[in-house]
Amino acid sequence: MRWVLPDHIQDALPAEADKLERLRRRLLDAFRGHGYQLVIPPLLEYLDSLTTGAGQDLKLRTFKLVDQLSGKTMGVRADMTPQVARIDAHLLNRSGVSRLCYCGSVLHALPSTLTATREPLQLGAELYGHAGIDADLEIIHLLSEVMRLAEVPASRIDLGHVGLFRVLAARAGMVPEREEELFDLLQAKDLPGLRELLADVAEPVRSALLALPTLYGGAEVLDEARARLPDDAEIRAALDDLGRLADALADLPISFDLADLRGYHYHNGVVFAAYGNGSPAALALGGRYDRIGQAFGRGRPATGFSLDLRELALGLPDSIQAGAILAPADSDAELRSAVAQLRAEGEVVMTALPGHDGSWKEAGCDRQLIKRDDRWTVEALQGE
């Protein structure tokens, strides 16, 4: 029988798995060094908990099944952010700032793109309990450091603000269905479609919404936005926030895209997308989502980011490691001591099990332990 995996699902073979695991450890250690504590949410939850506060896109991406014990509908997580919000709001229940991080597989009913996996290895960091710009700065700096440690430094970090869209959509009097359509058109920067959708929207809101897809680039975009968007207190506050972030992040490759609204269903403030050299799509997404924990009893201020570790690791070379050392199957006490010492030094030592039919070089061995003059020494592997 020919074993075939489902579309957009794949195994991680030894070289890739080793690369992913080394990267995971390195990045989680970096999170720990910044005070972010690791949490491990469950793979399955009741559907309401997984999709609370999320938009239709997350609901459509979530695999659903019936719990044989309770008869309730459950889901396989498609995004760990709502789970971490539940942990902060319902289980930890801290009054001050809480820094949490996570890494684990999520499952998508449909791939996000034609080439994307349906089982991303999602890694992220969340900061709860601080509503100020300083929290957004910390998260964006942390993201930049994570990409540097992964040897995929950020070539561009696009900033936007969901508040701009929300204010303008509310002024346009959009019903939820039309707002979803407006969102999709803005994301695609589809100006002809926008003109058709906004034909009956009054000025100056119509011109402002048509301007959003054209407002991308360097710091000059903020001045252009102030000139082209309505003089509204919320709009001014959003643009001021972006300006303060740009000034404080001058050491990073910051740019702006005021129509980039991914995740706007639960984001409510600054949003950002980070790109690496040669990556046509964003490698990491994040932003502020202050009310995501409301359904769990505490709508705390929150900001964070997440990324797919598989995607981040694509451009990295496979780990170059020394081959393993082959040790004979011998009960000699000195041999056991030598093997223990080598393993303590970080070497991989394999025992030559009797009856092995394959090649030891194929198994990864390039050296062997041989007894010379009553001492066990490491030499180059002879033969296969």
Automatic annotation (TrEMBL):
<dbReference type="InterPro" id="IPR041715">
    <property type="entry name" value="HisRS-like_core"/>
</dbReference>
<keyword id="KW-0328">Glycosyltransferase</keyword>
<keyword id="KW-0028">Amino-acid biosynthesis</keyword>
<dbReference type="Pfam" id="PF13393">
    <property type="entry name" value="tRNA-synt_His"/>
</dbReference>
<feature type="domain" description="Class II Histidinyl-tRNA synthetase (HisRS)-like catalytic core">
    <location>
        <begin position="8"/>
        <end position="312"/>
    </location>
</feature>
<keyword id="KW-0963">Cytoplasm</keyword>
<dbReference type="InterPro" id="IPR004517">
    <property type="entry name" value="HisZ"/>
</dbReference>
<dbReference type="GO" id="GO:0016757">
    <property type="term" value="F:glycosyltransferase activity"/>
</dbReference>
<dbReference type="InterPro" id="IPR045864">
    <property type="entry name" value="aa-tRNA-synth_II/BPL/LPL"/>
</dbReference>
<comment type="function">
    <text>Required for the first step of histidine biosynthesis. May allow the feedback regulation of ATP phosphoribosyltransferase activity by histidine.</text>
</comment>
<comment type="pathway">
    <text>Amino-acid biosynthesis; L-histidine biosynthesis; L-histidine from 5-phospho-alpha-D-ribose 1-diphosphate: step 1/9.</text>
</comment>
<keyword id="KW-0808">Transferase</keyword>
<keyword id="KW-0368">Histidine biosynthesis</keyword>
<comment type="subunit">
    <text>Heteromultimer composed of HisG and HisZ subunits.</text>
</comment>
<dbReference type="InterPro" id="IPR004516">
    <property type="entry name" value="HisRS/HisZ"/>
</dbReference>
<comment type="similarity">
    <text>Belongs to the class-II aminoacyl-tRNA synthetase family. HisZ subfamily.</text>
</comment>
<protein>
    <recommendedName>
        <fullName>ATP phosphoribosyltransferase regulatory subunit</fullName>
    </recommendedName>
</protein>
